[in-house]
Amino acid sequence: MGRVERYIHEKLEENKLHFVLIDPDDTSPEEASKIAELCEEVGVDAIMVGGSIGAEGSVLDNVVKAIKESSSLPVILFPGSHGGISKYADAIFFMSLLNSRNPFFITGAQALGAFTVKKFRLEPIPMAYIIVEPGETVGWVGEAKPIPRHKPKIAAAYALAGQYLGMRLVYLEAGSGAPEPVPPEMVRVVKSAIDVPLIVGGGIRNGNQAKELIKAGADIIVTGTAIERAKSLEEAKVRLKHLREGIRV
Ligand code: 1GP
């Protein structure tokens, strides 16, 4: 287990965690730097960087560099494919979209990116990525067969399969900008099936939603849009604090 994964586990012994996702295609390096500074100030636990469209090359590198310069939080890549790798990050969620219909998103992109991860000495953290309805852009791009919202057992079966395949985190994803988060009942059923930490993201806008998901069994809450859409840093700060109150129950 590498440094960032150990950090996650150590923190989870004390509290549930909040990761903020920054999409380099929608966020300039200057904005990313201010958001990261704010995240550190209010007690966010890590920054994830990635996106389904355009989050690669110098656009990605410049955002990761800006975050590293302005905060000491771990930066974990959240790649849409092998294009989403930056040597400036600390770690990468080495993820497989288990319910994709296209093997490219299950093992293909991973094979194309593996040697780059090694060359850059990035810490790979193996993760099962499962897309739940509606799935939004990542569901469409990733050619997912999204898990129906009222079928928690299907999600749990994928999650347990991921764990048995050796993945050390499970991520339930409703898709960035989803109108509603993953249903709490699905989180509860998945959590009761697995032993590895459970990450939940997509459509989480406020502390009340986060609290409900934490109560259902989420270990780590991911938010992106809630902060991206804030009209000012002040508003972002209020939202982050409210989310934190919901997560640190
Ligand atoms: C997307 O789960 C993340 O991959 C975050 O979603 O942008 O809706 O917070 P939101």
Largest sheet: 8 strands, parallel, barrel
Oligomeric organization of the protein chains: single chain
- Helix content range: 40-55%
CATH architecture: Alpha-Beta Barrel
Strand content: 15-25%
What is the H/E string? Answer: HEHEHEEHEHHEHEHEHH
- Spatial strand sequence of the major β-sheet: 1-2-3-4-5-6-7-8
Count every helix, treating DSSP H or I runs of 4 or more residues as helices.
Answer: 10
Q: Which molecules are bound besides the chains? A: SN-glycerol-1-phosphate
CATH fold naming: TIM Barrel
Category by helix and strand content: alpha/beta
Number of E strands: 8
Mean pLDDT over the full residue set: 97
Q: What's the level 1 CATH class?
A: Alpha Beta
Please tell me the total number of domains.
Answer: 1
Cα-atom Rg, whole angstroms?
16 Å
Question: In terms of per-residue confidence, which ranges show pLDDT below 50 for 5 or more consecutive residues?
Answer: none
* Envelope shape: globular
Distance between the termini: 28 Å
CATH-level-4 superfamily name:
FMN-linked oxidoreductases
